[in-house]
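Lab notebook, page 48
Experiment: co-folding of the full assembly
Goal: obtain a model of how the components sit together before planning crosslinking
Operator: M.T.
Materials (sequences as entered):
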Amino acid sequence: MEKYTNVELMICMAARLVEDERTVFVGYGMPQIAAILAQRLYAPNIIQVYEYGAVGPEVATPFRRNMMADARNSYRALAWTTMNPIMWMASAGYIDYGFLGAAQLDPYGNINSTMIGGTYERPGRRFTGSGGGNEVASLCLRTVILMRHQKRKFVEKVEFITSPGYLDGSPGARERAGLPRDGGPYRVVTDKAIFDYDEETRRMRLIGLAPGTTVDGVLAEMGFEPLVAPADELMLMEPPRLAELEMLREDIDPDRVIIGRVG
Amino acid sequence: MQRAIEDTFKVLESGQAQVLLQDVDDVRAWMRDNKSRALVDKRMTEQEAVSRFVHDGAYLSYDLSSMVRGLASLEREVVRQGIRDLWVAAKFTLLDTTILVAGGCVSKIDVGFAGLGRTLFKAIEQGRVQIFDWSNGTLALRHLAGAMGVPFLPTRSLGGTDTFKHSGAKLIEEPFTGKRVVLVPAVNPDVAIIHVNQADIYGNARIFGPSITPVETAMASKRVVLSTEEIIETEQIRRSPNRTTIPYFLVDAVVLAPYGAHPGTCPGLYAYDAEHLDEFFAATTDEAMQVYLDKYVYGVASHQEYLEVIGIEKLLSLREAERIREGYYV
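Observation: model returned without errors.
Model output:
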């Protein structure tokens, strides 16, 4: 059986999630690659939307490091516009999916990509900040979070809420904060598992296992305990298919900038 | 019902950030009195443009799109002239805030996306620059408010987060339907730097391709310095009015700067310089960044000398590597 990297696994699992004929807000790296893979294999009519103003580009692969907003990223788009109109689309209810990464994630899908440790004025470790992440998490109808499955990333409380999940999980929390009535985290895809969010408690819930993973193995690498779907409902995710790996390695990211190399 | 909603139109929560607030009528008066509508030849060197329009303590907004039409050569000139104490809007940028911070030019940053580079994050961690967190979308919206001449604009984002708490936004119940929304204050930068594809000598400018907030930034800012890949005739502007991005009376200076976005890309003209970017990102210590700055900023007197250091072979290869022209120049 073909070996694959953790990133390839996450990208394949995320690519299979996206329904066709939907709009997908994507950013640099894994989200871009997952959307391109989905488009090539499963959902040819999805519209990628980028905060820098490209609507529905046919991204010119192969992927290159630092490829964001350039001619290849924007190639043969349906429309080129600017940042404000893109955010209006999300705000007005036109953007179905938003893909995001996270440095830290809490049980209600709140994301930290700003800082860890120290104080705000003197952070231990400072990151880039929201970028477009806060808009994606606030405004897209369904947010999909892609992140490595590491214990230190799953925390009971993030040190800084950069981008909103379900906030404190209470009913109407997002609306009280000024956010739209619908929207919020939909799935979390890691290299060990897939999670959704319980409809009532808004707590993260394990619904699928990556190949070769057990429930115990997933929970052991988390700093909080998620809900767990009943055993007979837990999905066993298929490993990356040959067609997916070929598309990734030969067409989309042959330089392995994002997908990495096996062993 | 109406009376009840109007009673609740009050601020529920406020972010704690310092915000550069200005009276919108003062800004309007400034634009009325200081932005000449006369057709004057605004071409000048980058040295003159920066020394005339970028001052210590200014609020500076650069409008480019990660590695597209930026790093702008004008930003290197700002570092070269040792401008200090700038408050910058870090919109959709990767290198620009980093180089300005490395050059010691920045005291405050409104963060949409802080940028990349260890030297930048270290400066923040050590308290050498003060950060106010926003988001890409709300910074874009603040420039739109500034361009509209209104004090604020509402958004359905930002609320409920620590980003909100550390921004200068406010949460209200709006007076029409009672919905909770976040308000972000307008920003009217003292000066804007924008690299464009084409401009005439008066400042009518074209940007090809998608972009961040060039029109909003140009309209909101008190002074606008453009660098352009090429100067074109006004006749060409008038033949394709649809392609004009920025009208001339918003602009104060036009600086001719071919390859003015290097090491970034100008789509349709030249690709980004991957080797140079690697060199930039490899400068993770203050010492290494000083070496980079000495080579590419302090050690050259102008953009032309910078291009000589980059070398004709490299520049031609970047032009050759940019295979896609459709949608930009075609």
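Interpretation: The mean pLDDT of chain B is 95.
Next step: discuss with group before ordering constructs.
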